[in-house]
Amino acid sequence: MNPGFSSWIEIEPVSPVFIGSDEKIERFETIVEGNMVYILDFQKLLGRDDFVELFVAKMQDILDPSVKDRAMKEIFQKLNLKLSEVSLDSFPAQWRNNKPDNLQMKRFVRSAGRYYVPGSSIKGAIRTALIRSDQSLVRRFEDLLKTIVEDSMKESKQGMKREKERNINIKGGIFGSPNQSPFRLLEISDSDFIDKKFVKFKLITVRNLLNVKTKISMMLELWLDKQDESNKVRVLLQSRVDRLSQMKNWITDPGKLLETLGDKGKFIEAVKSATEKIIQLEIERIKKALNSNEFKLILGFYEKLREENKKMRDGFILRLGAQTGFFSKTFFTRFLNRNELEFLKSTHKVYNLFPVSISIAEPSYESPVPKPLGWVRVRFVS
Hints:
Elements lengths: L4 E9 L6 E5 L5 E4 L2 E5 L1 H4 L3 H9 L1 H4 L5 H11 L8 E6 L2 E2 L2 E2 L3 E5 L1 E2 L2 E2 L3 H15 L1 H23 L12 H6 L10 E3 L10 E10 L2 E13 L9 E7 L4 H4 L9 H6 L1 H24 L8 H16 L3 E5 L18 H10 L9 E5 L9 E2 L2 E6 L2
Parallel strand pairs: 8-13
Antiparallel strand pairs: 1-14, 1-18, 2-8, 3-4, 4-5, 6-7, 9-10, 11-14, 12-13, 12-16, 15-18, 16-17
Helix pairs in contact: 5-10, 10-11
């Protein structure tokens, strides 16, 4: 058995990527001026004693949405501050009933104010890909889900009370606790920092493939897919199969995963195979959309992505981050049946579009073509 490998990998976005920090932009942190929304840099503003003094004095007005913008502009006017000087970002306002829409706004993950890709996010994406590439593992997962769904339906028919949100840990059912998982042998560092000029707020639309009128809009702080040599990050990936002897009492039934984790070539081919499956699923479900013509550009993007993934020899295409869709986050290589969907809806916190939605970065001046979120190019550089 091969002892594993250690390599530096480079990651660059081929579509906008969102990795959330659970940090939201609150309404009082924005100002509408003309047709633009400005996101205020409160970290910078709160460093000024004169601003803090005026902000506290006008707090009652600032917390009133009807006069909030006027109160903030009065403060800036008194301090001779321009909006462009105290804003993190700005974007065109979205209007509804002649009023700017109060869109949800979420920030990209940061450390000490600098953007990066957490190793845990990369590992999660690769782990799901490796599971999907192994048909024996997929069958085990599907068999376990089938058993859980059937038991749930029996309980429902018998009138047995069941918790609204059961803790369904299917991966744990296969691999045991996290301490027992063979993926403990895979170690991935956090990336180095992303150049802040490549991170911007953009309009994202979550669209229902079966009802074109149903959509949810939000503003996300994204790592943009600008083609620039500096728009890459490096990560150290280590497959520590050589540590298996120390973990033999912990690792539960690793199966063929050890062969994949032990050899860099097999590792790359496994992830490429999984990416091919998820791209095919995405193409199939878009073609089933009520108005598939609306998504022609997205289909074209996926066809090019599939070709690139096939041709890569030193890496693979990978789905990474949040808002990338249900099938990208799970081990499924097929569409789910009605019972499975209803069960997963009842046990997970999901919105009404689950799982027939697609999150799209809308066209803009910088990127005139709409793209699905969360695709990156991964290359092994050592």
